């Protein structure tokens, strides 16, 4: 595969990703109505199959996205992309409904600069996802009328990133991951008044709010390993992801039903692309894993983000709580060298995932628990088809909250090529 072909392939997928972001979200959680949406802290498909393991361990057959220091393990060219689909059963204790969402999750590539010593990576990935639809009804005080609010949200924040990793000492590598943040979160509130028979009164009103992000973020990573025998390694990894003030612009407008979301229609503009920011606290992560080379790995990792310090565009605080995530997972390859046996060459993954989410409602902080499975099936001697499945539950029906039982499925591929720097002898 020529260099120009690789560049064209990446450009085509990136263009598709950018345009598809307008219409697709990788999550469908009601709780994404809070903050700037659901954070993706579980990495790529290969990481998701292990509960999000990827800070302390990486391979040369997949882009090492979670910890840029691990990109030194990418000794050949790697191109990776994946689609994600989530189906949720939303239960309020009285009513149960189904919701879903999905789309292209990421498009990434990595290539070595000095094989085994330094590398670079680039790509586009979704950081947060907003996708919810709520109906809230109640009586208007002092009248016989009822109100019906339909509250919708879509969008999210994505990143276009450039990263590098390099060996600084024996078994010690460092990495830097710089991101350009972009994307929009769109929230619409439609209000309808109903008489005592349930018939609409007058024309429904609508509030449309759009926050469009344009800023930069940076993530640093470190990785160290040491031998534990002739065939075993112990890996230790850490990351620090700095967000801070994320700048953007807000557009808000009220009008009759169907008018507020159209800039050129009648209505009252409240905010006309006013510049401002949201404050997102930094994220830190640590991990340790044990590897039998080309056989298996098992690891334990954690991430923490002090999201109680989150500040909205309007300057409001206290909307979220501190969040942490713990992942226990691993992978096994029965026989890495079994060229004639596909099942033995396939890598099988498993994981457990627990998260105290940042969502606090009625003095209850929402918990998220999941069990993960996945694998990588060889396509040829180098490339792979990757998949991951997560079965999880989020929230509770206590105190009027919502419990979400969900299935998250990710399907992608890794195209690997060891001819990136080979000189062409024959045309």
UniProtKB/TrEMBL annotation:
Keywords: Signal. It comes from Mongoliibacter ruber. The keyword Signal applies. This is Long-subunit fatty acid transport protein. Residues 1-24 form the signal peptide. It comes from the Bacteria.
